Amino acid sequence: MTRIPIDDDEQNEGEQQLEGEPNSGASAQGDANDFAKVKAERDMLFEKLARAQADFQNSRKRLEADKQQSVQFANGNLIKSLLPVIDNFERALAQDPAKSDAATILRGMQIVHDQWLNVLKQQLVQEIAPQPGEAFDPTRHEALMQQTTNELPEGSVVQTLQKGYALYDRTLRPAQVSVAKKA
Prior knowledge:
By secondary structure, the chain is of the alpha+beta class. 48% of the residues lie in helices and 18% in strands. It has helices spanning 25-72, 76-93, 102-122, and strands at residues 125-128, 141-148, 157-162, 164-167, 170-173, 175-181.
C-alpha cells in the first residue's frame, strides 16, 4: 500500500514502498519519525477540537442565559411607565368621599384614563376600534353577533362592543363587534 506524504518537502523515494517489502535501516528510522509526527499532529488536532467544542458549549450557555435574562426583564420599561398611572389611581382612592362630588371623581378618572392610553401609545400599542360601516376583518375583529340591517352592507361592522389592541400591527386582542346581515 502506498503512503500519502504528510510534508511535501520531505518526500523520499522510500515513501513509495509497499508495506510488505523489506525496509532499510534508514528508511525504518524515517518511518518512525513520520509516525511520531503524524501522531503528534493528530493529538494537536484532537486538542483543538476539544477546545472548539468547549468554546461552543460555553457560548451556547452564555447566549441562553442572556436570552432568559432578556425575557425576564423585557417588560421592565412598560411597568416603569405604568407606575405613575398607579400612583394617580392611589391618589384618587385616598380622597375623602364626603368632600368629593361625582363630577370631580369622573373628571379625575378621565385624566387617569387618558394617561393610561398615552402610556400605551408610547409603547406603540394601537387601539382597534372599527367604525360602523367598516369592513369586518377577521384578523383584527371578533364577531360576537349579527344584526339585521338595510343601512349597512352585509359583512360590515354595525357596532363595536369592546375595543381591541395591537402591538406592531400584531393583534393582541381583537375588537369585539356586531356584524351586519341583510334582512
